[in-house]
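[Discussion] Sanity-checking designs against the backbone

I'm trying to build intuition for which residues belong where. Below is a structure token string of 330 positions. I'd appreciate it if someone posts a full sequence so I can compare it with mine line by line.
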């Protein structure tokens, strides 16, 4: 079965292509390479293009006789979305609407969408369940919620069948290190902390040390990218046998603070993480971690990587491999 993976040249999309191929699916990546990498597309063809190009998406759906779409393609950095909101609305909301129109034109009904825990904003209680109110506090989260709403309304109207996956913080890399996180403008905590420990970058800035959390820093739910990829395969199998719209959280359910992540990086690298304390970052909720009972029950999915040190170690191993590869090609 051929699956279109928009954003398949990106971090989570490429790991999902790997998981799809392992399970006998044929992933076809559709990606503009705005933040993705051609080298990450290893398990099927790459069709270069922008999801907002409706004619092209429709032609690709028909050329490959695609049966379902996994839609990862998006801009996804909170701080960048605060600075460039219209670029985010255009890419993430107009992009999703255009994709939905192309699917309708080409008769493809099944969709799995990458959403985010950022749609919850500041949750009323923890852990976060899917039926809690959505009230995103940054433009990125609002674009993802707008796209979700369009998808769920189309599903409610019987036009598509869709699974919306709200992931928490993706981290780590493929165990065989074939692919991993390689954002050109890196802003994520784990890779930045690893680079700081290895003295490849400036000291880490800890954004906010006065939150009402056990150690004053933000809590997040770091989920291994391979567990996320497996969840997409489970979601695809689920939606092939179900109709209408469904939403699931994907996390570990276990929170880690910024300081705990720094300790994990120290354990994984054997080096301290040089850092400074900085003001809170605009758009950051204090604590986000998931209730994952629904995904367990309906998708039959269970995260396998629960130890933050193991997750960080996987990121460290990938960083060493990627750095060595870059040095070879330099
Ligand atoms: N990384 C996380 O922790 C996280 C958490 C929650 C949700 N998400 C969501 O998961 C998805 C993937 O995130 P990621 O971390 O792999 O990001 P990424 O930047 O590595 O991957 C995104 C991919 O989409 C492509 N893309 C972007 N806009 C496009 C467009 N208009 N047309 C075609 N291709 C386009 C990029 O080139 C890139 O390959 C995103 O939708 C993001 O919002 C990520
Ligand atoms: O240099 C840094 C970078 C981050 N942080 C903190 O680390 C935590 C995690 O930040 P980051 O790794 O940037 O992830 P998030 O801002 O939580 O966003 C990620 O996780 C979201 C889900 O929570 C996704 O929707 C987004 O796409 C993805 O970028 C936050 O408390 C940040 O304030 C720092 O203290 N210093």
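Best answer:
Here's mine. Compare freely.
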């Amino acid at each position: 079965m051929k699956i279109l993976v928009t954003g398949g040249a990106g971090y989570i999309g490429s790991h999902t292509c790997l998981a799809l191929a392992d399970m006998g699916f044929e992933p076809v990546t559709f990606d503009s390479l705005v933040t993705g990498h051609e080298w990450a597309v290893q398990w099927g063809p790459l069709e270069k293009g922008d999801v907002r190009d409706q004619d092209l998406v429709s032609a690709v759906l028909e050329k490959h006789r695609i049966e379902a779409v996994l839609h990862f393609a998006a801009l996804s950095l909170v701080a960048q979305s605060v600075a460039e909101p219209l670029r985010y609305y255009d890419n993430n909301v107009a992009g999703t609407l255009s994709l939905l129109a192309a699917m309708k034109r080409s008769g493809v009904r099944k969709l799995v969408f990458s959403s985010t825990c950022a749609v919850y904003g500041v949750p009323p209680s923890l852990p976060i369940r899917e039926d809690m109110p959505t009230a995103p506090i940054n433009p990125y989260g609002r674009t993802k919620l707008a796209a979700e709403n369009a998808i769920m309304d189309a599903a409610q109207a019987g036009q598509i069948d869709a699974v919306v996956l709200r992931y928490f913080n993706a981290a780590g890399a493929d165990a065989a290190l074939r692919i991993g996180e390689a954002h050109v403008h890196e802003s994520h905590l784990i890779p930045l902390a690893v680079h700081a420990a290895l003295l490849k970058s400036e000291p880490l800035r800890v954004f906010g040390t006065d939150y009402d959390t056990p150690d004053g820093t933000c809590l997040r739910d770091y989920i291994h990218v391979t567990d996320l990829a497996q969840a997409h395969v489970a979601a695809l199998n689920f939606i092939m046998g179900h109709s209408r719209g469904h939403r699931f959280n994907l996390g570990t359910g276990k929170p880690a603070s910024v300081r705990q992540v720094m300790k994990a990086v120290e354990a994984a690298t054997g080096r301290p993480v040089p850092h400074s304390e900085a003001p809170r970052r605009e758009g950051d909720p204090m604590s986000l971690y998931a209730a994952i009972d629904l995904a367990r029950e309906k998708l039959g999915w269970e995260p396998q990587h629960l130890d933050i040190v193991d997750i960080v170690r996987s990121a460290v191993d990938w960083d060493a491999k990627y750095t060595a590869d870059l040095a070879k090609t330099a």
